[in-house]
Each structure stands twice: as C-alpha cells, then as structure tokens.
C-alpha cells in the first residue's frame, strides 16, 4: 500500500481519520466556548460583587446616619448623605445597569460572530446580528 507513515499506523481509512479529526475539532470548539462562557460569567460575578460591595458601604453609612438621627434627633449629621447625593446615586445605578445590558449584548454579538466564523462565512446569518442591534436601540 501507498499509506506509509502515520496514515498506516493510525489503523483507519482516510475517511475515518477525517471523521476523528472533525470530532476532535468539534470537541475543542465546545471546550473553548465553555471556557469563554465561564470567563464571561466570572467577569459578571466580579462586577456584581463590586456593585454589592458599594451598595453595602452605602447601606452601612445610611444605617449609621439613621442611628445618629435616632439618638440625636432629626436632621442630617456629619457625614450623612444629603438628598442630592441620593439622586446622584440613583443616576449612577441606572448607568451601571445600562452598562451591564450593553456588555451582555456585546457578549452575545461576539458569541454569534464566533459561531458564524467557526461554521464558515457561508453560514453567516445577519438576521440574528440585526436582531441584537435592534434590541440595543429599544429602551430598557
């Protein structure tokens, strides 16, 4: 036979080897996708953790102020947030929520593009990407 080298040692036909290679490639792609998803989940959890830490600090300050007010009477004490600070906090929280939504849409668009790239340019479906872009235009 003309199949010397590693072809002959593999113990299979070129078609079987091609199928094995395709299976390995698919497994590799799935492993990469899962790793990417875990990394993204980790980023989201880190962001949520940071947000909760900030919220916890704010609530502790608010609690201290309420405790001082209960002891000393009405009126903001030193270091207590004013009503203007509450509005700024609400605006910052709204911006953080909007950023989170935009990051999620960006992540989904990247996943879609990677899937299309892995499947080949002929399978590119711009309709899904267009749908993501339209979602971005709609208010939350």
From TrEMBL:
<feature type="coiled-coil region">
    <location>
        <begin position="35"/>
        <end position="112"/>
    </location>
</feature>
<dbReference type="InterPro" id="IPR043450">
    <property type="entry name" value="CCDC89-like"/>
</dbReference>
<protein>
    <submittedName>
        <fullName>TUSC1 protein</fullName>
    </submittedName>
</protein>
<keyword id="KW-0175">Coiled coil</keyword>
